[in-house]
UniProtKB/TrEMBL annotation, chains A, B, C, D:
Localization of this protein: Cytoplasm
Catalytic reactions on record: Release of an N-terminal pyroglutamyl group from a polypeptide, the second amino acid generally not being Pro
PROSITE patterns: PYRASE_CYS, PYRASE_GLU
Domain of life: Bacteria
GO MF annotations, alphabetized: pyroglutamyl-peptidase activity
InterPro entries: Peptidase_C15 (IPR000816), Peptidase_C15-like (IPR016125), Peptidase_C15-like_sf (IPR036440), PGPEP1_Cys_AS (IPR033694), PGPEP1_Glu_AS (IPR033693)
Cellular component terms per the entry's GO annotation: cytosol
Enzyme Commission number(s) of this protein: 3.4.19.3
Name recorded for this polypeptide: Pyroglutamyl-peptidase I
Active site: E80, C142
Job of this protein: Removes 5-oxoproline from various penultimate amino acid residues except L-proline.
């Protein structure tokens, strides 16, 4: 049995629900496809989130790291192609705001996902779940965690595959933030399950 | 047992699937809440669709007429507030195109829905399904059918309540038309069921 | 020389600039095409705005009433096809909020614009300014003023043509509200000038 | 007098006008701020566009390379933060389509723009022109040209600053492709002029 570290985030900005938190808690300790799921919820915090995912990585020694994030406005499941070496955007949950700042001072500008993103998109679509590759994970905490993890694996010279997938808002969240496109939590949960089943 | 005439449409324009067609076929002859459902699929045709809904109305003698239409781009279920006395927009499935043309030459400019649209929105939201009142049903076949039916009921002096609800694309359709927001067919079907259950 | 009553609105909701206010002030007392412009700025207030536009109408005795409103999110100039007999939406500038309320208790559900909206759209497009007919003016103050004025003219049995045109945000406003599409004030001003020149 | 190589593209996909082509032709051989402008129009062609920009670079020996591209759907001027080592997306003007393919087989995954993108955004905003940093130039020809040029400069060890700026559709184009947000050509031209004036 292989192991997957599945991360989500707590709520942030004006989104009082983060569907990735629910998904991660619900799938924690479940077996999906070839994987035992280790679910962990990360803080929306530039100082802590990177350290925490690395700590979870060291503790769980997973074969795959799959990080999930909410992309408010997304109409599809979007595996991210690349993480970039940049912190920017709104203040995090602790009020810390970054602008045009490198995550790793001597790190490369960008790092491609090592998940099979094309296969994931095709497999989700086959399962009747709209999906597409995204070419930016932004410059906020999602990108921060994705870059941090990819850089760590590379630095350690490990074979662990790692990457990030953004998901749409849930219906529950869209009822509170009325302009957001949304999926049912059931659809979101099924999408993450399908993704894990598609991994070798 | 009361009766509801539930209408949907066939596919149109570049949308090769119309989720309202599937819903109407699936709910036909079912009993939901206090209603026996008479499901009928209408053509996307300025000449025929109005005549057909009136024919179905006369044959089924329903207590309520609920017409469904696809609103490609919608992120919610949207009961329509008003139908307007205007045919306009792209050509229909027979190639007939209208511009700024009255539906009923001496009919009023607008006719409000006689469904309890606020109650529907609140009830859908309570059922965790994003919903909002829409203030335009457009000027294409959806508005045409809504106006035609409301005008007919008024002309005949009947008490039948009548109105229109637009629904988002299904995941199936969004996979073919990649920019559309979408819901699973299951969510769409549940929304229509909830609406019928909310009717007195 | 004919006379046109041109109205705009003060800022509202979280839009701290209302480009229609600037346009109306700038065109006030100018002569455009066959028209002398009487520019008036209306409050965003369900109690007062209708009374004020009627007062301006009585004082100026115009041949045409053209009301302008900001449609945050619009990418074009959109002459409105219809006003509906409904107050709804967010609270106005005095904190008064309406829901599903008729504007005129015994008024018709909808009233078509009596401006030549198709001609305006074609003329704007010919002038290289994107334009389209809109089928809803919403249910907030814009629709309120449009309905009130159309109903008043009808009630008085006058020949005055009356209608509403929504415009996009200005660049100035979009800089403060970062997701809005916008035009330069110069383009917005040119659009309103073109509209007046198109009137007989 | 310094020299700037300013590139645009010919029309592509279903956009029969490319405003960057007009801008580049109009500013060619003009002096703006400290720069003499060398304007060149590139083909939308995965095989040729990279070779051509390098050829123009060698011939003109500029101090700065500024490439422009149309971002249909953009509501602002968006200097790009990063180019990524990937060709993907729709077929180019010669019918050649790429998927998940590296541009430079042994090149880095991403390369940051070496233009002062934050300064450009601030300066454009000060000039009342909405602007924001974009974190993805996509994976089509715009990104291809941006990556190719940044990689070439790096490979040659030169100090030339290089980067890419996406612009909204022009009103002219939006009239042909009706859902696009747009600016007047005059605003677009002013934006590019402001950018060049902001360069040291």
């Amino acid at each position: 049995m292989k192991k997957i570290l599945l991360t989500g985030f707590v709520p942030f900005l004006n989104y009082s629900i983060n569907p990735t938190e629910h998904i991660v808690k619900q799938l924690n300790e479940q077996t999906i496809g070839n994987y035992e799921v280790c679910g962990r919820v990360l803080p929306v915090d530039f100082e802590k989130s990177g350290k925490q995912i690395i700590k979870h990585f060291e503790e769980t020694e997973p074969d795959v790291v799959l990080s999930l994030g909410l992309a408010a406005g997304n109409v599809k499941i979007t595996p991210e192609r690349i993480a970039i070496n940049c912190n920017d955007g709104e203040a995090d949950n602790r009020g810390s705001q970054k602008q045009d700042q490198r995550i790793v001072s001597d790190g490369p500008d960008g790092l491609f996902s090592t998940l099979p993103i094309r296969k994931l998109v095709n497999g989700l679509t086959d399962a009747n779940l709209p999906a597409a590759i995204s070419n930016t994970a932004g410059t906020y905490l999602c990108n921060h965690v994705m870059y941090t993890m990819l850089h760590q694996v590379k630095k350690e010279g490990k074979a662990t595959r790692s990457g990030f997938v953004h998901i749409p808002a849930s219906h529950e969240l869209a009822i509170l933030n009325p302009k957001l496109p949304s999926w049912s939590e059931q659809d979101l949960l099924r999408a993450v399950t399908v993704i894990i089943e598609l991994l070798d």
